[in-house]
């Protein structure tokens, strides 16, 4: 990202963690854009809690995923700080953080959270590898992780026929937010298809990447973060910096990328597009072309764009045609890729469930 003080960042909101982590590098502004109002409502809630709670309370809510007196805290201190649309959303979800439900952690709520809860029940009751996974999460080295993984027969215990069957179902993938277009990209490009891709990805996570700082998988497997394994915004010193003013640089926008850019008069220097273009690559390419035209129109000089894909190689962006200074250009002509850096960083990806990652600078002249 190479963020500087004058950078203006536009990103896909998702759960809002990236927006809060990026603003800790003190860019001028962070615009969190998502078509799903629930994602923006979650970031709005985090922002409201940063402004109204102390650090132990904030970590209880978003670190542990539960606060027994959440209802009272929400009504008396948080609710009034929310935008009206987000207030309506959280008024209807008062029990998500209370810890009283069967799925006690907030991180086991929602569709993907429900799937995580089911996977954890599968780990406990079918695969019966909870003890080994806990030891792996607390291991002091990758070598210790691999030894536990192998000796505990984690691979064989987890990948039973019922789970193999489940990962081949579109319904299962939709709960995880994986569209058919992404599944088809992996099936076409990876030997053994989606099932083998997931098996290999999890093996890499457990045996080649450190779990000590892998907060993505810790929260998925336990329903909570720890004080030493969590996103940057959940660390006390960073919480204080956010509360002291940095959080005011973050704004949420319920819109498409193209819609936000078309309505905005901001000059954006950093774009973080995640994998959302995978959803747009099938069929009619007009929406994807319109998005890239909007990116070109609002692009600052020396802008940088990051995105990822389920596919092992993205071939649907470079051929898109956009208008630059009254000339029709292919998008690929405007991008200077950094394949070496992208490959190096992709290998370190702690989620490790995407086929490829891209870093590109935009040059319009």
Order of helices and strands: EHEHHHHHHHHHHHHHHEHEHEEEHEHE
How many strands?
Answer: 9
Through-space gap between termini: 22 Å
Class by SSE composition: alpha/beta
Catalogue the unreliable spans: none
Strand order of the largest sheet: 3-2-1-4-5-9-8
Query: How much beta, percentage-wise?
Result: 5-15%
Mean pLDDT: 92
Overall helicity: 40-55%
Number of helices, where a helix is a run of at least 4 consecutive DSSP H or I residues: 19
Instruction: Give the biggest beta sheet.
Output: 7 strands, mixed
Rg calculated over all Cα atoms: 21 Å
Shape: globular
Structure in words:
This protein has 365 residues and is of the alpha/beta class. The chain has a domain at 107-222. It has 19 helices and nine strands. The chain has helices at residues 17-23, 37-52, 55-62, 70-78, 84-91, 110-127, 130-137, 142-151, 154-158, 161-167, 170-175, 180-189, 193-207, 215-222, 236-243, 257-263, 286-298, 331-334, 339-347; strands at 8-12, 29-34, 250-254, 268-272, 299-309, 321-324, 327-330, 335-337, 356-362. It has a seven-stranded mixed sheet. The chain has a two-stranded antiparallel sheet with strand order 6-7. Strand 4, helix 17 and strand 5 (299-309) form a beta-alpha-beta unit. The longest helix has 18 residues, at 110-127. It is globular and about 65 Å long. The model has no long low-confidence stretch (mean pLDDT 92).
Write the layout of secondary structure elements.
Layout: E1 8-12, H1 17-23, E2 29-34, H2 37-52, H3 55-62, H4 70-78, H5 84-91, H6 110-127, H7 130-137, H8 142-151, H9 154-158, H10 161-167, H11 170-175, H12 180-189, H13 193-207, H14 215-222, H15 236-243, E3 250-254, H16 257-263, E4 268-272, H17 286-298, E5 299-309, E6 321-324, E7 327-330, H18 331-334, E8 335-337, H19 339-347, E9 356-362
């Amino acid at each position: 990202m190479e963020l500087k003080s004058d950078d203006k960042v536009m990103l896909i909101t998702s759960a809002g963690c990236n927006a809060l982590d990026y603003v800790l590098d003190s860019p001028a502004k962070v615009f969190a854009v998502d078509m799903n109002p629930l994602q923006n409502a979650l970031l709005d809630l985090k922002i409201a809690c940063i402004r109204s709670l102390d650090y132990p309370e904030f970590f209880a809510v978003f670190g542990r995923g539960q606060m027994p007196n959440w209802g009272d805290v929400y009504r008396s201190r948080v609710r009034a700080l929310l935008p009206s649309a987000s207030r309506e959303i959280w008024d209807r979800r008062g029990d998500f953080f209370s810890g009283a439900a069967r799925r006690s952690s907030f991180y086991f709520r929602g569709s993907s959270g429900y799937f995580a809860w089911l996977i954890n029940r599968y780990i406990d009751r079918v695969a019966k590898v909870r003890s080994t996974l806990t030891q792996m999460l607390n291991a002091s080295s990758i070598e210790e992780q691999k030894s536990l993984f192998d000796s505990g027969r984690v691979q064989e215990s987890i990948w039973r026929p019922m789970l193999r069957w489940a990962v081949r179902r579109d319904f299962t993938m939709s709960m995880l937010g994986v569209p058919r277009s992404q599944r088809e990209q992996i099936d076409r490009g990876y030997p053994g298809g989606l099932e083998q891709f997931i098996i290999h990805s999890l093996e890499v996570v457990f045996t080649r990447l450190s779990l000590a700082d892998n907060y993505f998988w810790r929260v998925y497997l336990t329903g909570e973060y720890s004080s030493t394994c969590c996103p940057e915004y959940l660390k006390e010193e960073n919480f204080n910096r956010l509360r002291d003013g940095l959080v005011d640089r973050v704004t949420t926008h319920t819109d498409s990328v193209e819609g936000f850019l078309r309505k905005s008069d901001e000059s954006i220097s950093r774009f973080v597009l995640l994998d959302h273009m995978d959803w747009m690559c099938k069929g009619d390419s007009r929406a994807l072309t319109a998005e890239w035209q909007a990116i070109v129109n609002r692009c600052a000089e020396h802008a940088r764009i990051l995105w990822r894909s389920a596919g092992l190689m993205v071939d649907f962006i470079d051929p898109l045609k956009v208008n630059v200074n009254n000339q029709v250009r292919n998008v690929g002509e405007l991008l200077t890729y950094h394949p070496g850096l992208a490959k190096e960083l992709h290998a370190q990806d702690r989620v490790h469930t995407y086929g490829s990652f891209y870093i590109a600078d935009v040059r319009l002249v």
